Amino acid sequence: MATALLTAAGYAGGTTPLAHPAFGMRDPALARSDYIENCGGCHGVTGSTAPALVPELRGRVGWFLCTPETRDYLLRLPNVAHSRVRDDAQLAELMNYVVYVIGQPNIPVKAQPFTAEDVARARPRALSSVNLTRERARNVAIAMKRCGAPASLRDFYDGQTAR
Amino acid sequence: MKIFDTDAIGEKWLRKLAGHTSRRSMVSRLGLALVAAPAFPLLPVSRAEAAKPDRSPEAKTAFARNAQSSDDTECNYWRYCAIDGALCSCCGGGIHSCPAGSEPSPVSWVGTCINPDNGKAYLIAYRDCCGKPTCNQCFCDNTDRQTQIYTPQLNNDIIWCFGTQSMQYHCSTAVLVGGAE
After folding, report:
1. Which of A60, A85, A154, B10 has the fewest CB atoms in 10 Å of its CB?
2. Whole-model pTM above 0.80?
3. What is the number of domains present in chain A?
C-alpha cells in the first residue's frame, strides 16, 4: 500500500511554531486553530463526528492528495474555496493540517503539500453548481484506482453501510 | 557688510554642492528616495489578512467588553459569545453536560470567545443536546462571528442535532475546546 507513516502526530497538539515549513505549515498551531474554528464544528476537532452524515477526515482525507485532480477537488469544495480564511497561504496551511495531521497515517508517498498558489488557482473554480455527492464519488474512484485507497472511502465514515 | 552672513554661506554651499553633484549622484538619488518613499507601500501585498486576529481591547465586540466569568447561567457569561438557544446549565445539565434524557450531538457550532480574566481567546464548541422537547429556560442569542442566513454554515440559528437518535432540540452546552491562536 502506497502509504507513508508520517511522524506528524506531534503536531496534533501543536503549540510551538516550527522554524521551517514541515508538511507545508510554518505555523502548525495557527493551522490547527483555524481548522477547529472553521471546520471542526461539523468535521470534529479530531476529524470525526460519526454517526453524523459528514465525511470523516481522520485517516481518510490524505488519500485525496494522490492525484492533481483529487487534490484540486479538496481545494474546490465550496466551504474551502469560499472559506472566511481569505489569505491563500493561511488557507493552504489549514488544508495541510487537514491532510497531513488529521489524514495520517494514510498519506500517499511523495505527496506535495498545498501551496498558496494551489489555493489561488482553485478558489475561482469552486464547486458551487455541481452535485457534491457525485463529485466526491468520482474522486474516490480515482483515489481507489490510481492510489489503492480502500473501498470504505466510498462511505462518509468507516462502518456507515453496516448501520 | 556683515561679517557672518548665514544666508550667503548657505547659498554658497548649496551652489557648490549643486555644481559638483551630477544628476545621477548618490546625493540626488538619496533625496529622490526620501521624497518618493511614502508613495510606495513597504510591502507588495496586503499582510493584514495574513496577520493573526486582533485580540486587543479595541477590537473586542460589544459582547466581549461586557462579558463576565462567574455565572454560567447568564447569557453574558464569556463562553456564550456565539450561543443560540437555551442554556443547558439552566435546564438540569451543565455548561459541559446534557440534562438527563437528552444526548449530545456529535456536531457543533464553533465560536471564538475572549476570557475577560486573562484577555485570551478560546475556541468554544456549542454542542446541542437533543432528544427532548425544547427547554424554555435562559434563552440566549449571541452573535459573535456569525453571518447572514444565506451563508448557512456560518449562521448559528441552525439546529445542530445531526447524527443523534432524534432531531428534537433541547438545549445548548458550551464546551471549551482549547486556546485560539
Report:
1. B10
2. no
3. 1
